[in-house]
Amino acid sequence: QVQLMESGGASVQAGGSLRLSCVVSGYTNRINFIGWFRQAPGQEREGVATLSTTGGDTYYASSVRGRFTISRDNAKNMAYLQMVSLKPEDTAMYYCAAGSWVADRLSPREYSYWGQGTQVTVSS
C-alpha cells in the first residue's frame, strides 16, 4: 500500500502564496505519477498538477499554469505544490494522489492512492 498525507493548507488573501506538502510512504516504488487535485463544495474533483516520478515531466491544468508549481524531493519522499498569485476561485480542498499507470494525467480516476486533503481558502 501507499499512504499520503497533505499539509500546508490555510486561509490567505487573494494574491498570496502557499506551499502544500505531501508525505508519501509505503510501497513508493509502485508509483509512477504524483498529482495534486482539488475539490470545491458542489464541484467535481479536478486535476491541478501532476508529475512523473520517472521522467520528472510535469503537467498543469490551464487554470493554474504559470501560478502553481509541482515538485518532489525523492530523498525525503515528499511532494509539493507551490501556489502563488492565489485567487478566490482557487478555494478548495486540495488532495495529493499517487498512481501507477496513468493515461489521462489530470483525471482523478487514474490515481489509486489518496491523502485526506488540506483546505485552502482564498479571500478577496
List the helices and strands and how they pair.
Layout: E1 2-7, E2 11-13, E3 18-26, E4 33-39, E5 46-52, E6 58-60, E7 68-73, E8 78-83, E9 92-99, E10 113-114, E11 118-123
Descriptive overview:
Strands 2, 4, 5, 6, 9, 10 and 11 form a seven-stranded mixed sheet that branches. Strand 7 (68-73) and strand 8 (78-83) form a beta hairpin. This protein is mainly beta and 124 residues long. The mean pLDDT is 95. It has no helices and eleven strands. Helices cover 0% and strands 51% of the residues. The chain has strands spanning 2-7, 11-13, 18-26, 33-39, 46-52, 58-60, 68-73, 78-83, 92-99, 113-114, 118-123.
Estimate what percentage of residues fall within beta strands.
over 45%
Largest sheet: 7 strands, mixed
Q: Mean pLDDT across all residues, rounded? A: 95
N- to C-terminal distance = 40 Å
* Helical segment count: 0
- Report the structural category: mainly beta
Please provide the count of β strands: 11
User: Strand-and-helix sequence, N→C?
Assistant: EEEEEEEEEEE
Question: Descriptors for this entry?
Answer:
124 residues; 11 strands
Short summary of the structure?
This protein is an all-beta fold and 124 residues long. The protein has strands at residues 2-7, 11-13, 18-26, 33-39, 46-52, 58-60, 68-73, 78-83, 92-99, 113-114, 118-123.
